[in-house]
């Protein structure tokens, strides 16, 4: 049952697959007529289907297969494939939160700079490019796909009920800072007592942390969660608001959370561009027109967004790098944003494209999503993630949950978070 | 060939009548037949077991590979880790909470199925239905049933006035253990019932008849005839349930839908296998995870040995 056993099993499976592949080579046409199959592995739908079809049309002799798995599973699988040295796809997506975890094994990934990636540096948002290079000059681990620029989604009808302004520009003015956001929450709660102000303290904390350059780790990858005053400030603010009963205490992305969105249990939610799709799916048709989007407190921030990498174990690194380049090109990113997936581009020319800027969302009361998300994406800096960021993040999330469950007050939760993080980072 | 020659010399004279060419095979064949098991066990059982022990003696990152040799440090760290004791308690608690009622219920179900029912095979097939359903689906459905806000269980409990406020099933030790035990019971009761049923059918019918003639009621017959007759089967199910129960993973893993193997904010339902998964596959600390898996292996071995001894004693008694 040990991880090694799983690894060995995985290796054995991979070996078996490789054998099968060999057999296919012998009998099939792969080698004979020079056809090449590239695999692209992503989590959730990246909107690549039409792009892949286009690529296959313009590149006769190359077949592209898509492999989509669930978020955590995708990244855990990649760890296993990297560890066992085989089984990884030719082009693999890595989400920014998981990227640092692979920093320690970056030599297992093709340096895209060897395949002309450096020519694209000027196109990218500075901070996105920097994330993809892991801060190593001359090395490019991945081409940036999308970014998750932050906003706040709010229930227009509930705001009206509470006597708050409903126009998105005025709503944005209600909360220049997070303090003002929580104060507005108090005002809201005093008038609409049976609704919460936000969905989950964890999401608020994450959003705040995504607005700082350094969170749990400093530039030398040292854990500073216990000494960085920002971490304490954000933690205590989210915890205090939760203790004040502003949170609907819904665990993010759980069934309860989805049901909570559908039932309209809270008035606001932290809203990266990709969250709009989550809300629309959870709330369904009945929620259409009830939601709107306003600016986020604290002026912008980034949450989410991915990179396309090429593991060194790929037999066709050159072709894979070309495909990754194509899938993140300006034309491709624009197509994805204006398509059903709607992920926000990470390229400056696309973000400034009038057509992209003019995009609106019908579901969110025709909110100018292009304007809202694209304009705030420009003003951002990178936020540094430590190699063990996730291992620090989880104990803090657990501690906030304790406040939501009424098992600890904010100070107790803070102490617990520090203890548990120390333990988890050993 | 060497074996064949050797066996010829040691063959007792009584077997000399066997045609010469069969003699060697006679000695080899049985071993050949069981060899695949040992080969497969060696590759997938023994080798990983030893390799896991080797890994546990190192500071070993799953991605970066072998690091420094640390001796038994991982085991020492484990013994000082309060999470380890929480996980051990959780594992045993969920195991007891789910296994005892489950086996009792299975006995009852088997007893009912052992009588002459209409559409007998339909009932017997139905009992096994929970086994066909994927454990992932079971866990998802149950976590919805035990949901805080819109769960049916809370709705019923509130409706009957048993509770005032909705229970947050994942939040507390007792409630999470109870909910997870229900999932385990749902999945395994029917399976054990069928095993008991098979054993009950093998009980000689004349024993029942003589009990009946002696005027014993149904309950008394069950206690004095059925139970003693199927005791070896009960021991078998207890051993199997113990091994399964101590390795419980999917149900607690899927219960809170976080996918991070934390087992709740205070690890209140983190089992040993969840802890193993957390360190091995989330924190990538293969050395520590291997230590956990070895300790788990030892715990199971000890419990199985105790089971075995108890069973032997009860058979003698």
General description of the model:
- Chain B: It is found in: Cell membrane.
- Chain B: It comes from Streptomyces parvulus.
- Chain B: InterPro entries: ABC_transporter_permease, MetI-like, MetI-like_sf.
- Chain B: Residues 88-307 form the ABC transmembrane type-1 domain.
- The complex is a heterodimer of chains A (426) and B (317).
- Helix content of chain A is 46%, strand content 12%.
- In chain A, the strands form 3 sheets. A 5-stranded mixed sheet of chain A has the order 2-1-3-10-4, with helices on both faces. Chain A has a 4-stranded mixed sheet with strand order 7-8-6-9.
- In chain A, helix 8 (201-209) runs antiparallel to helix 9 and helix 17 packs antiparallel against helix 18.
- Chain A folds into 2 domains: 35-147 and 305-357, Periplasmic binding protein-like II (D-Maltodextrin-Binding Protein, domain 2, 3-Layer(aba) Sandwich), CATH 3.40.190; 150-303 and 365-424, Periplasmic binding protein-like II (D-Maltodextrin-Binding Protein, domain 2).
- Mean pLDDT of chain A is 87; it is low at 1-32.
- Chain A has 426 residues and is of the alpha/beta class.
- Chain A contains 18 helices and 11 strands.
- Chain B is mainly alpha-helical and 317 residues long.
- Chain B has helices at residues 2-10, 20-56, 73-80, 82-113, 120-127, 129-132, 135-145, 152-159, 173-201, 205-213, 218-229, 231-246, 250-255, 272-282, 286-316.
- Chain B is globular, with a radius of gyration of 26 Å.
- The A-B interface holds A 1-9, 72, 76, 79-80, 82-83, 101-102, 104-105, 250-251, 253-256, 259-260, 265, 388, 390-391, 394, 398-399, 401-402, 405, 407, 423-424, 426 and B 44, 47-49, 51-52, 55-56, 61-65, 77, 81, 83, 140, 143-144, 147-150, 168, 171, 247, 256-260, 262, 265-266, 273, 276, 280-284, 286, 289-290, 293-294, 296-297.
């Amino acid at each position: 049952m040990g991880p090694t056993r799983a690894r060995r099993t995985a290796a054995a499976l991979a070996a078996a697959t490789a054998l099968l592949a060999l057999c296919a080579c012998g009998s099939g046409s792969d080698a004979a007529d020079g056809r090449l199959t590239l695999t692209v592995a992503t989590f959730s739908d990246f909107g690549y289907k039409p792009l892949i079809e286009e690529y296959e049309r313009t590149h006769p002799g190359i077949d592209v297969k898509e492999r989509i798995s669930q978020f955590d599973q995708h990244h855990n699988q990649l760890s296993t494939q990297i560890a066992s040295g085989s089984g990884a796809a030719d082009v693999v997506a890595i989400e920014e939160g998981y990227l640092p975890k692979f920093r320690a094994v970056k030599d297992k990934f093709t340096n895209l700079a060897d395949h002309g990636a450096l020519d694209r540096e000027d196109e990218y948002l500075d901070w996105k490019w920097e994330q993809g290079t892991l801060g190593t000059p001359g090395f490019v681990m991945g081409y940036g796909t999308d970014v998750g620029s932050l906003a706040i989604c709010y229930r227009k009808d509930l705001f009206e009920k509470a006597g708050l302004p409903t126009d998105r520009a005025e709503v944005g003015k209600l909360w220049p800072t997070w303090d003002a956001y929580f104060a507005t929450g108090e005002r809201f709660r005093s008038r609409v007592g049976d609704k919460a102000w936000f969905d989950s303290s964890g999401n608020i904390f994450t959003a705040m942390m995504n607005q700082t350059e350094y969170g749990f780790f400093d530039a030398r990858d040292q854990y500073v969660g216990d000494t960085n005053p920002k971490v304490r400030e954000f933690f205590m603010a989210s915890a205090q608001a939760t203790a004040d009963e502003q949170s609907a205490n819904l665990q993010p992305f759980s069934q309860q959370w989805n049901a909570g969105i559908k039932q309209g249990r809270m008035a606001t939610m932290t809203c990266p561009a990709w969250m709009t799709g989550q809300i629309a799916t959870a709330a369904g048709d009945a929620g259409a027109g009830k939601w709107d989007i306003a600016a986020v407190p604290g002026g912008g921030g980034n949450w989410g967004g991915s990179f396309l990498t090429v593991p060194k174990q790929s037999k066709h690194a050159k072709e894979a790098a070309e495909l990754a380049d194509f899938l993140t090109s300006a034309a491709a990113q624009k197509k994805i944003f204006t398509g059903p997936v709607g992920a926000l581009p990470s390229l400056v020319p696309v973000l400034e494209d009038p057509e992209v800027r003019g995009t609106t969302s019908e579901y969110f009361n025709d909110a100018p999503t292009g304007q809202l998300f694209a304009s705030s994406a420009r003003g951002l800096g990178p936020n540094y993630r430590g190699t063990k960021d996730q291992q620090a993040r989880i104990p803090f999330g657990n501690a906030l949950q304790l406040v939501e469950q009424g098992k600890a007050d904010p100070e107790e939760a803070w102490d617990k978070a520090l203890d548990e993080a120390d333990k988890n980072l050993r | 060939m060497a074996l064949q020659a050797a066996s010829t010399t040691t063959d007792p004279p009584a077997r000399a009548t066997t045609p010469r060419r069969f003699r060697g095979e006679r000695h080899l064949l049985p071993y050949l037949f069981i060899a695949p098991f040992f080969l497969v066990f060696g590759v997938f059982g023994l080798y990983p077991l030893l390799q896991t022990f080797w890994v546990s003696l190192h500071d070993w990152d799953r991605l970066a590979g072998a690091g420094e040799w640390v001796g038994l440090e991982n085991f020492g760290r484990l013994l000082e880790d309060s999470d380890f004791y929480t996980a051990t308690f959780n594992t045993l608690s969920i195991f007891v909470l789910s296994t005892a009622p489950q086996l009792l219920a299975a006995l009852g179900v088997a007893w009912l199925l052992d009588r002459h029912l209409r559409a007998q095979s339909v009932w017997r097939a139905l009992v096994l239905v929970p086994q066909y359903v994927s454990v992932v689906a079971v866990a998802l459905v149950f976590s919805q049933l035990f949901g805080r806000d819109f769960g049916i269980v809370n709705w019923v409990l509130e409706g009957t006035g048993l509770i005032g406020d909705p229970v947050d099933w994942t939040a507390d030790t007792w409630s999470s253990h109870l909910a997870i035990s229900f999932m385990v019971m749902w999945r395994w009761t029917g399976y054990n019932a069928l095993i008991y049923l098979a054993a009950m059918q093998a009980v000689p019918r004349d024993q029942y008849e003589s009990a009946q003639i002696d005027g014993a009621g149904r309950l008394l017959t069950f206690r004095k005839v059925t139970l003693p007759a199927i005791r070896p089967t009960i021991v078998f199910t207890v051993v199997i349930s113990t091994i399964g129960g101590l390795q419980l993973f999917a149900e607690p893993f899927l219960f809170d839908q976080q996918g991070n193997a934390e087992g709740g904010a205070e690890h209140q339902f983190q089992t040993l296998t969840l802890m193993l998964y957390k360190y091995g596959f989330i924190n990538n600390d293969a050395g520590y995870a291997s230590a956990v898996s070895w300790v788990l292996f030892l715990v199971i071995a000890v419990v199985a040995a105790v089971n075995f001894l108890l069973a032997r004693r009860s058979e003698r008694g």
